[in-house]
């Protein structure tokens, strides 16, 4: 939980490198704000 109590804002987080980053940050304990081009692609 290295990122506990941290907040990350990730653009392009619905696929590819952005999605992998969101996944890793969540597993490390961060709160994540995800930006995507459509609501459907942002539902993780």
Write up what this structure looks like.
A two-stranded parallel ribbon has the order 1-2. β1, α1 and β2 form a beta-alpha-beta unit. The radius of gyration is 10 Å and the shape is elongated. It has two helices and two strands. It is of the alpha+beta class. Helix content is 36%, strand content 23%. It has one domain. The longest helix is centred in the middle third of the chain and has 12 residues. InterPro entries: NAD(P)-bd_dom_sf (IPR036291), SDR_fam (IPR002347). This is SDR family NAD(P)-dependent oxidoreductase.
Percent helix: 25-40%
Fraction of residues in β-strands: 15-25%
Q: How many domains make up the coordinates?
A: 1
Radius of gyration: 10 Å
Helix count, per DSSP? 2
Largest sheet: 2 strands, parallel
**Average pLDDT taken over every residue:** 89
Distance between the termini: 21 Å
Q: Which structural category do the helix and sheet elements fall into?
A: alpha+beta
Q: How many DSSP E strands?
A: 2
- The strands making up the biggest β-sheet line up spatially as 1-2
The geometry reads as elongated
Give start-end ranges of low-pLDDT stretches. none
SSE pattern: EHEH
Protein name: SDR family NAD(P)-dependent oxidoreductase
Summarize it.
InterPro entries: NAD(P)-bd_dom_sf, SDR_fam. The protein has 44 residues and is an alpha+beta fold.
From the structure above, extract its key features.
44 residues, alpha+beta, two-stranded parallel ribbon, 2 strands
Describe the secondary-structure layout.
Elements: E1 7-11, H1 16-27, E2 31-35, H2 39-42
Parallel strand pairs: 1-2
């Amino acid at each position: 939980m290295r990122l506990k109590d941290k907040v990350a804002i990730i653009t392009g987080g619905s696929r590819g490198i952005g999605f992998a980053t969101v996944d890793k940050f969540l597993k490390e304990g961060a709160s994540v704000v995800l930006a995507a081009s459509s609501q459907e692609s942002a539902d993780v």
